[in-house]
Amino acid sequence: NDDSVNPFFLGSNDNNPIQLVSQKLIGGKNYFPWARSVIISLTLTQIGFIDGTIPVPDPDSPQFILWTQCNMIVLSWIINSVSLDIGSSIIYIDNAKAIWLDLRHRFSQKSGSRIFELQKESAYLVQGQFFVEDYYTKFKALVDE
Question: Contact, 71 vs 79, CB < 8 A?
Fold first, then answer.
């Protein structure tokens, strides 16, 4: 039995207050890259806590305690991966899926002004002093978003 595929398995490093992703969520401007990074980071075992594929067990079930521990770890990772302002608005939500849905609802809305901003930024982007690789990376990030 391989514990590492058990959704309730916590490795020795999982209790550390690690930063889940390298860039914190600051709002709508970086929501999509942030969300993608979180999904990639959680895909190995804990993705089910934010997408709902690991449902909350019955409170009388022995798995409820395990689910609660893992859910709290995922909560702490998410809270530590957002700005202080956003973190203070989600700190009292006790379910990782609920936090995920709240953040998605708040920041994933397609905004006409954001689309215009991205189009303008990509239209005015010039290589200038950038190395070709840096210019291409910046351009690709704008196009992908």
Answer: no
Amino acid letter, 137? T
d(CA 129, CA 123): 17
- Give the SS3 label for residue 82: strand
Residue 21 corresponds to which amino acid? V
Tens-place pLDDT, residues 124-134: 777 787 778 77
Q: Can you point out the beta strands (E) in the chain?
A: none
Cα separation, 53 vs 42, whole angstroms: 13
The structure's pTM equals 0.69
Compute the distance between CA of residue 95 and CA of residue 92 in angstroms, rounded to an integer.
Answer: 9
DSSP state of 25: B
Tell me which residue has tokens 């920041």: 107
DSSP SS3 for 105? helix
Residue 17, sorted as left (phi over 0), alpha (psi -120 to 50) or beta, turns out to be beta
Instruction: In whole angstroms, give the CA distance from residue 25 to residue 32.
Output: 9
Q: Please name which of 91, 96, 54, 90 lies closest in space to residue 72, comparing C-alpha atoms.
A: 96
